[in-house]
Amino acid sequence: MKIYDRPGFPNPARIRIVLSGKGLDKKVEFVPVDLIAAEHKQKPFLNKNPSGVIPVLELDDGTLISEATAITEYLDNLDGDPMFTGKTPLEKGLIHMMQRRAESMLIDPVGLYFHYGTPGLGEALQAHKSPEWEGRSEWARRNRQTAEQGMRYFDGILEDQNFVAVDYFSMADITVFSGLAFAEAAGLTVGEDLSNLRAWRLRASELPSVKNRTGQQFVADDLRRLGF
Ligand SMILES: N[C@@H](CCC(=O)N[C@@H](CS)C(=O)NCC(=O)O)C(=O)O
Question: What's the pLDDT score for residue 8?
């Protein structure tokens, strides 16, 4: 199996947590994609994932699976003993629901704010992000607001429960965890008043699947070079 990704980027990190939890990290070859040079917007990569984003999983027979959730479902169910995507119909339903909220209310708007409201990954990629569009800064502002509301929403959820969807760390928690890391890289802080979310994040960061994932840092060297 190959994973096309880049260490230190938040959506790829979702898969690295899963690989670590499932003990699969040594069974995959990580193929780095140069996001700064916009390699993922060129034809060879678009042939693998027309959405032009990482991560992408390529199986030994050439089958391609993109979208972090789809890759997670595949990897988590390979051994017939899912630990992140739910064991019962109820768990599966709750995890799916909360993971989708974690995308639409947090990690996706953070990504849009990052690419449209900051210099993002630099010139080569900005050319693919509608640089001349006059609604750009308003779009970025709205997405920032959505992400900040999302943080508040998950803080509320974690008031009454230990994890985001079910009573263990699931795919929904992975998405929130990575979303917060992305938020910080984009300059959005997790407010001091969001104490449930902060405490959950601290607990989550100590879980073996999170702590021992390969390529641990969440802010890649490439991003640091760009001033993040
Ligand atoms: N919905 C996608 C999101 C993937 C995504 O946005 N990945 C980022 C890296 S963290 C990316 O490739 N960004 C490049 C771009 O937006 O041009 C998933 O779940 O895999």
Answer: 85
Residues 201, 192: Cα–Cα separation, whole Å: 13
**89-212 fold:** Glutathione S-transferase Yfyf (Class Pi); Chain A, domain 2 (1.20.1050)
Which of 3, 6, 9, 11 for a ligand 1 pocket mutation test, highest count of atoms within 8 Å of Cβ? 11
pLDDT above 70: percentage of residues in the chain = 94
Is it the case that residue 228 has pLDDT exceeding 90? no
Judged by average pLDDT, the poorest of 35-44, 112-121, 127-136, 141-150 is 127-136
Spatial strand order of the sheet with 64-66 comes to: 29-32, 2-5, 56-58, 64-66
Rounded CA separation 69/88 (Å): 18
3-state secondary structure at position 64 = strand
Cβ burial of 17 (10 Å; 0-12, 13-18, 19+) is buried
Ligand 1 surroundings by CB, under 6 angstroms? 9-11, 35, 40, 52-55, 67-68, 111, 115, 125
Side chain identity at 55, as an amino acid letter? P
56 and 48 Cβ atoms separated by less than 8 Å: yes
**Where exactly are the structural domains of the chain?**
2-77, 89-212
DSSP assignment of 117-156:
HS-TT-HHHHTTS-TT-TTHHHHHHHHHHHHHHHHHHHHH
Q: What's the CATH fold of domain 2-77?
A: Glutaredoxin (3.40.30)
- Please say if the pLDDT value at position 226 is more than 60: no
